[in-house]
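hey
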């Protein structure tokens, strides 16, 4: 071997050691943006928006009648909270949303399982459900008022109706999309029908079901807003309508902010459920969501 070949041979290990170290810099940069840093960045845009809003309101570019300053909204929230009216209305709305969500979600989950497993159930149930789902939500409101009046039943029914469709559709879809190879593997392993359902089908459909739950949480508040604007004597929607009559834009904006915060909290709870219940899933395990 010549001196040049010997030198090149000695250099090769050094090259082999240096080449894998090239991606080290991007890896370090990726570690800088950990879960906490990404969470902080996600709140950066809303906080900047609030800061700009406050500046425009304080300098007079936006009049209080059109859009009050965030500081005024905060003071209004504190005043209503100390008097107890805000907490009472918030508790009333949360109770209506929770009862409607449980009722509508449970019925939709059962129907989704029936339709997902049985073609006969699909023929008997699915077309009727899809026809009702196609009706504009507000078009049903007069009929619902005739049925239930303007009491609590009307509000809970509207929430349950809005919640039912996302959970029903995603439950059915999740069951139908379970990998056939997994079902074949279960048959080879000699699993019974009950074991196939509990160990393969329902866990496989769980990502789609939880997606339906997330959509249903958003729909529940939309339905509740509509329900509480008609004949309500308490609740966040009633608070907004009462403030509109007296041109209290600070209270109206406060109710909008409350709805937004509740939506964020509800979605965060749904994401937490995804991480806990789908820890076995490669697309959810260890994901910063």
């Amino acid at each position: 071997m010549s001196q040049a070949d010997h030198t090149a041979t000695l250099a090769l290990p050094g090259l082999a050691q240096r080449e894998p170290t090239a991606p080290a810099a991007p890896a370090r940069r990726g570690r800088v943006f950990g879960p906490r840093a990404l969470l902080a960045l996600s709140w950066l845009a809303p906080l900047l928006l609030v800061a700009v809003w406050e500046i425009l309101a304080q300098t007079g570019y936006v009049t209080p009648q059109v859009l009050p300053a965030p500081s005024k909204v905060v003071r209004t929230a504190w005043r209503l909270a100390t008097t107890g009216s805000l907490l009472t209305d918030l508790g009333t709305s949360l109770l209506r949303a929770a009862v409607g969500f449980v009722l509508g979600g449970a019925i939709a989950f059962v129907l989704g399982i029936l339709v997902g497993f049985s073609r006969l159930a699909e023929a008997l149930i699915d077309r009727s459900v899809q026809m009702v789902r196609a009706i504009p939500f507000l078009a049903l409101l007069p009929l619902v008022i005739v049925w239930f009046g303007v009491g609590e039943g009307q509000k809970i029914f509207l929430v349950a109706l809005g919640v039912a469709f996302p959970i029903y559709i995603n439950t059915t879809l999740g069951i139908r999309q379970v990998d056939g190879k997994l079902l074949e593997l279960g048959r080879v392993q000699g699993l019974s029908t009950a074991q196939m359902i509990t160990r393969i089908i329902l866990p496989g459909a769980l990502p789609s079901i939880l997606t339906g739950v997330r959509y249903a949480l958003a729909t529940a508040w939309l339905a509740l807003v509509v329900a509480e604007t008609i004949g309500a004597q308490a609740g966040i929607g009633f608070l907004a309508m009462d403030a509109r009559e007296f041109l209290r834009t600070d209270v109206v904006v406060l109710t909008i902010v409350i709805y937004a915060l509740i939506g964020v909290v509800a979605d965060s709870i749904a994401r937490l459920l995804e991480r806990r219940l789908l820890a076995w899933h490669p697309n959810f395990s260890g994901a910063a969501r």
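The two ends are 57 Å apart (CA to CA). The CA atoms of residues 54 and 71 lie 7 Å apart.
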